[in-house]
Amino acid sequence: MKNQTQPTGQLVIQIVAMPADTNANGDIFGGWLVSYMDMGAGIAAKRQAASRAVTVAIDSLIFIKPVSVGDTVSFYANLLKVGRTSMQFKIEAWTMAIHEEKNNKVAEGLFTFVAIDDQGRPHPVVRNTTTNCR
Ligand SMILES: CC(C)(COP(=O)(O)OP(=O)(O)OC[C@H]1O[C@@H](n2cnc3c(N)ncnc32)[C@H](O)[C@@H]1OP(=O)(O)O)[C@@H](O)C(=O)NCCC(=O)NCCS
User: What is the pTM of this model?
Assistant: First the structure.
């Protein structure tokens, strides 16, 4: 994990961390990162399923490095598996600090989404893909 120098997957969200998103230490609050990871997985899931999709599980989450105010944070989605109605994504969060050339992976986690119909019931995902998050 520490040796990874470049993100894997498809860029789904990019945002600058702001002072309002900090914790008591002055670093970015973990819940802020998780919320964007969940949103990024949701974007990828909706694209994959071509329908609404909801989070059913977050199975692991690792915070690797702190995020600072002003960092550009980029979220990448990797489709790991597709079930009948579910999809599992690995989401990576990476930062690029203002005065740094290097990308740093700051968090990663596994997010499972379920494709739902207009009534909120699970419905089958089209298993069409050999590519990541079409
Ligand atoms: C997600 C939801 C629609 C699933 O409904 P359900 O009736 O439990 O559906 P099922 O039991 O048929 O399971 C649907 C799929 O989810 C998977 N699943 C269910 N619980 C799971 C869990 N804890 N972890 C991983 N996958 C899970 C099932 O394996 C199944 O996958 P498959 O069809 O690919 O085999 C329902 O639980 C729900 O609405 N949950 C609330 C979602 C929510 O509000 N999320 C937060 C905001 S987006």
Answer: 0.92
